Amino acid sequence: MHPVIEKVTQEVIERSHKTRSAYLKYIDGIAKQGPTRSTLPCGNLAHGFAACNPSDKADLRGDKKANIAIITSYNDMLSAHQPYKDAPDLIKAAIHEAGGVAQVAGGVPAMCDGITQGQHGMEMSLFSRDLIAMSTAIGMSHNMFDGALYLGVCDKIVPGLLIGALSFGHLPAVFVPAGPMPSGITNKEKARARQAYAVGKIGREELLAAESASYHSAGTCTFYGTANSNQMMMEIMGLHLPGSSFINPYTPLRDELTKAAAKQVLKFTALGNDFRPIAHVVDEKAIINAVIGLLATGGSTNHTMHLIAIARASGIVLNWDDFDRISKAVPLIAKIYPNGPADVNHFQAAGGMGVLIAELLRNGLLHEDVLTVGDQPGMNYYTQEPRLIDDKLVWEPVPAESLDKEVLSTVANPFATGGGLHVMHGNLGRGVSKLSAVAPEHQIVKAPAVVFDDQEDFLAAFKRGELEKDFVAVLRYQGPRSNGMPELHKLTPPLGVLQDKGFKVALVTDGRMSGASGKVPSAIQMCPECLSGGPLAKVHDGDIISMNLQTGEINALVDEAEFNARTPAPNTAKNHHYGSGRELFHRFRLAASSAETGASSLFEVDYTSE
Question: Mean pLDDT for the chain?
Answer without folding.
Answer: 92
